[in-house]
Known about the structure:
about 350 residues; TIM Barrel; 8-stranded parallel beta barrel; two-stranded antiparallel sheet; about 30% helix; about 15% strand; OxRdtase_FMN_N; Alkene reductase; Aldolase_TIM; Oye-like
Amino acid sequence: xxxxxxxxxLSGLRLPNRLVMAPMTRSRAFAHGIPNASAAAYxxxxxxxxxxxxxxxxxxxxSQSNPRTPGLHNDAQVAAWRPVTDxxxxxxxxxxxxxxxxxxxxxxxxxxxxPVAPSAVALRGTVFGPEGRLPAPVPxxxxxxxxxxxxxxxxxxxxxxxxxxxxxxxxxxxNGYLIQQFLSSNANLRTDAYGGSxxxxxxxxxxxxxxxxxxxxxxxxxxxxxxxxxxxxxAEDDVPQLYGALFDALSPLGLAYVHVMATxxxxxxxxxxxxxxxAFVLNPGGQIAPRPGDRQLGEHWxxxxxxxISYGRSYIANPDLVERFRAGLPLRDADPxxxxxxxxxxxxxxxxxxx
Length: 355
């Protein structure tokens, strides 16, 4: 049986084990989307993961969601990321940048730009502001002529990611952000080629993947998806049909992997795994799970055909998660109050176990 500790070849990139550090917003960046210098130590501490996927990185100035998140849309940001990727590589690791366009999950007080989305439909609830939660604004609907510009933002950021030393990129198509907004049936009310039918609703995701693949090579591009996920007030009709069509459209591109969250029935996820020709990453935690994923859940999904298992919250307080799983050691918990508070507390103060 496949083990979490078996090696794996990801488009020619040798991973020493099957654990992936999932992307997690940590809100430690400086102003103007510049990664904090402490990010190099944070990611390097976790370099024993088979693969690290960075926190969500905005591909354009107006695509920012939370305060204090980093970008990849100017030269200063690229320069600030290089010490981070260098530190991961020096510790023997591999790291992809997650490109995250917030769409309607943003606020002018954070990004300095009014959010754009498939349709002028505000999410029900609040979004993160500089000093706390703010009512979600009504986004401006993108015109048909503007949509290709948002697609290009992913390609441009992918090129910058490679310039910054990342081994590849992951497009964030999950958790209610722009790509999933196009997939959805409540945030996307369009009647042009980017809405309406299943074919229309998947078009933006496919074009973004194609553009990133053309920019840096398909073998350096992954995409994260949350079939049926409802975070940020998202609804999706006909989930099996929608994601079946999306997988069919993405499969010929030769992407490095698809990263799927356990947000729908197990049988559907297994059928999607069988339909996917390349590496399949499964995050067993679902949406906001009552507990972080553990070794047992990971091994369960490996047995169902997943190639790699991603862990998010378990990596916050356990930079040596691979070693803890291997030795059967207990996992530490991190205080949720420190997840997004900034500073090094709850960020760099989790030493590895002393054997």
